[in-house]
Design brief:
With about 400 residues, the chain is α/β, with parallel strands linked by helices. The chain has helices at about 60-75, 95-105, 125-130, 145-150, 160-170, 190-200, 225-245, 295-305, 320-330, 340-345, 350-355, 355-365, 385, 390; strands spanning about 15-20, 30-35, 40, 50-55, 80-85, 115, 135-145, 175-180, 205-210, 245-250, 255, 270, 280, 285, 310-315, 340, 365-370, 375-380. The strands form three sheets. It has a 13-stranded mixed β-sheet with strand order 1-15-14-13-12-2-5-6-7-8-9-11-10, covered by helices on one side. Strand 8 (about 175-180), helix 6 and strand 9 form a beta-alpha-beta unit. Helix 1 (about 60-75) runs parallel beside helix 2.
């Protein structure tokens, strides 16, 4: 069983801690905000997200709690870089609830806003609210444009609803479409059909995800496609999308827009609600995470009943070695790569001397050394490295945390 590394360290490394948020969060900090809405009408077969189904009566109380959390955190509105609203299914909220949520968020008048959507919950009424708040990016969970593949994934929507939702979304500045490859009985022909249908709607972004079966999901016992088959399907996606004018910015992310070239690993993110993770340099924290709905519901009720949101009891404090590894993993897995001189300036050490694994990756042509626009040397993944990114990222997990990480 394998999953992918979208951050480091994984939440499975978190444990009991006892710290005060305001020792790490300061009034003038520049922040990204992530809002987690753990509500869905159903759970898809592959889903291992923190959420509950058929609990709509809790949404208003949950929004009350987020409002109290925002007030306690005292977030400076003019220091918000971006706002991302995920879940769960954010558009399971009513139009009035969406409006209430957006009104309470600091920085909403100017910070770019991104939101996740599902086809059956994408309605004209709800999209009117998003447009009123100038939401810039909507990410639609499509996964496949074939009904049989959607049934295998235990998705509730038919492909007809996907086309309808994409037509409604066409005038948003940025639309992203999520697709899955490696579905049982999926062929190169059926994968290309979904890619063609996606490109027909001209989204600026497309994310492609390999199907990994996770513990606690409805597809847990399903036989996965073997890794070689998944890699061949990735190359099918890569070749098709690059020929259609998309650029790979990571193993999964293809875009018609210029990439963000800023280094990552030290950004500060505050998660509102429960289910999302906060990153404040050395301090990473979240509410205890579970795929089990009974446990998730218990955590949601505890969040709603919390009096002081600044008391952090579940997370991890990173030492200098873990900060280096986070910087390496997060930057290496993007095509912008690792600026070798920047690494030396930030950490005071030589990257290749500290991590000889880079020599092997270089000889195996998984990475290349190139000059960026500033003529500084950058390590970046080759196409072969991008295809193998899920194996390359874990090479840099520390020996201390490796036994704890669910990969």
């Amino acid at each position: 069983m394998r999953t992918y590394m979208y951050s480091y360290p994984h939440k499975s490394t978190y444990g009991d801690i006892n710290v005060n948020l305001f020792d790490y969060l300061h009034p003038m900090d520049s922040l990204d905000i992530y809002v987690h809405l753990p509500f869905c009408k159903w759970r898809c077969g592959y889903c291992n997200l923190f959420l509950v189904t058929r609990q709509d009566e809790l949404i208003d109380s949950y929004l009350d709690a987020i409002e109290r959390q925002i007030l306690q955190f005292n977030l400076s509105p003019n220091k918000i870089n971006s706002i991302t609203i995920g879940g769960g299914t954010p558009l399971v909220l009513s139009a009035n609830q969406l409006e209430r949520l957006l009104k309470m968020l600091p920085g909403v008048s100017y910070a770019p806003i991104c939101i996740e959507a599902s086809p059956l919950d994408t309605t004209s009424e709800k999209l009117a609210v998003l447009k009123a708040f100038k939401v810039q990016r909507v990410s639609l969970g499509v996964q496949s444009f074939l009904d049989e593949e959607l049934k295998t994934l235990k998705r509730a929507h038919p492909t007809e609803s996907v086309h309808k939702a994409l037509d409604l979304l066409c005038d948003f500045p940025v639309i992203n479409i999520d697709l899955i490859y490696g579905i049982p009985d999926q062929t190169e022909k059926s994968l290309l059909y979904s890619l063609e249908q996606a490109v027909y709607h001209a989204p600026k972004e497309i994310f492609i995800y390999p199907l990994y079966t996770r513990k606690g999901t409805a597809l847990e016992d399903m036989q996965e496609s073997e890794e070689g088959q998944k890699q061949r399907m990735w190359y099918t996606c890569f070749d098709f999308l690059t020929n259609k004018g998309y650029t790979a910015h990571s193993m999964r992310f293809f875009s018609r827009q210029s990439p963000n070239t800023a280094s990552c690993g030290f950004e500060k993110t505050i998660a509102l609600g429960c289910g999302g993770r906060s990153y404040l340099e050395k301090l990473h924290f979240c509410y205890p995470y579970s795929v089990n709905e009974v446990e998730s519901l218990t955590t949601i009720m505890q969040f709603i009943d919390t009096k002081d949101y600044s008391l952090i009891t579940h997370g991890i404090l990173l030492n200098d070695d873990e900060l280096k590894r986070r910087y390496i993993i997060k930057n290496l897995l993007r095509t912008t790569g690792i600026d070798i001189e920047e690494y030396r300036q930030v950490f005071g050490t030589d990257l290749f001397s500290e991590f000889p694994k880079f020599d092997k990756l270089l000889s195996d042509e998984m990475i290349s050394l190139k000059h960026c626009h500033s003529q500084r040397k950058v390590i970046s993944l080759t196409p072969a490295g991008l295809a193998a990114a899920d194996e390359i990222g874990p090479l840099f997990i520390s020996p201390k945390l490796a036994p704890l990480m669910c990969l």
